[in-house]
Design brief:
5 helices, alpha+beta
Length: 115
C-alpha cells in the first residue's frame, strides 16, 4: 500500500459535502441548539443562564410559528409604523383632554358618565 492512498483528500475534492450544501441543508431543515449554564458555590446556585439558538431560514421559521421579528419595532418597519401610529393616537387623545380641561370643560368621558 502506498503512502498516497492512505492520505485524506483535501477539502473541496471528491464526494464530500461542501459548506454551501451543509448551510442549505441546515437552513432548509432548521437546527436547535439548547444549553444551560449554572454557576454554584457550595451547593448555592448563584447564576443560571439558559441559551436557546435556532438556525433556520425565514420560511422555515414561519412554518414553525416563529415570527417575533415581524412585531419587533427595532427589526420591522411595519411594526415601527404601527407603534408610532398607536403612540400618535394616544398623544392626540391626551392633548384633546388637556385642551378640554384648559377651557374649563370636563373631559368628554366624564360628561358622558354624569349624563
Amino acid at each position: 500500500m502506498s503512502m498516497s492512498s492512505r492520505m485524506p483528500e483535501p477539502y473541496g475534492q471528491g464526494g464530500g459535502a461542501n459548506l454551501a450544501d451543509i448551510l442549505e441543508r441546515v437552513l432548509d431543515k432548521g437546527i436547535v441548539i439548547a444549553g444551560d449554564i449554572r454557576i454554584n458555590l457550595l451547593d448555592i446556585e448563584l447564576l443560571t443562564i439558559k441559551l436557546r439558538l435556532i438556525v433556520a431560514s425565514v420560511d422555515k421559521a414561519k412554518e414553525m410559528g416563529i415570527d417575533w421579528w415581524e412585531d419587533d419595532p427595532a427589526l420591522s418597519s411595519g411594526a415601527r409604523r404601527n407603534e408610532l401610529a398607536r403612540e400618535n393616537a394616544e398623544l392626540r387623545e391626551r392633548l384633546a383632554r388637556l385642551e378640554e380641561l384648559e377651557l374649563g370643560r370636563a373631559p368628554k368621558e366624564v360628561r358622558e358618565e354624569s349624563a
